[in-house]
Amino acid sequence: MPTTIDLSKAELIGQGRDRDCYRHPLITNQCIKVSRKPQKQTKRERVYFAHLMFWKKDTSRLAHYLSAVNTSLGEGASYELMLDDNGQISETLREVILHQRLPEGQVRHMLDDLLAYLLENHICVRDISPSNIMCQKKHHEYRLVIVDGVSNPGVNPLNIRINFLSRHFILRAWRSLERKVRALYEEQKNANVD
Asked: Dmax over Cα atoms in the chain, in whole Å?
């Protein structure tokens, strides 16, 4: 019989539109996402990760789906948890921008690098936002890692199989991300004025 992981005292580290994310109470470098609605998003991600692995895509900039787990809050899914060198959970891109952790030019360069990675590997992200990107610090270097929403952007399976279509959806999602990043920088600048 599968073990049930008790999340009653687990640290809630994030909340999305559909799922809550808890730090795994037993495994330091994992988190558990539990859906508040039916498990559609987790299922999409699981299927898409299988597709990426089958085609031997570079998934080094993605938090990997690991397995389904039973929890005290219902069925969950375990994922890699992005940690910095010091063992702390990496900050989201949103936090990095709002708290001015890195210069804007460096953040822009890192975003350009992440976009090039997505395009080169034809990796689609259904909902890419600054809250779904972690800024991980390793060996005095920073890298952006996408931790949520990696899946087919629609119902058509060709979206992820035809490079032209995947490029279209990647760039469309990226334009949305750029708007969100600009809004964060405006919010941060306005906070400094006040």
From this structure: 58
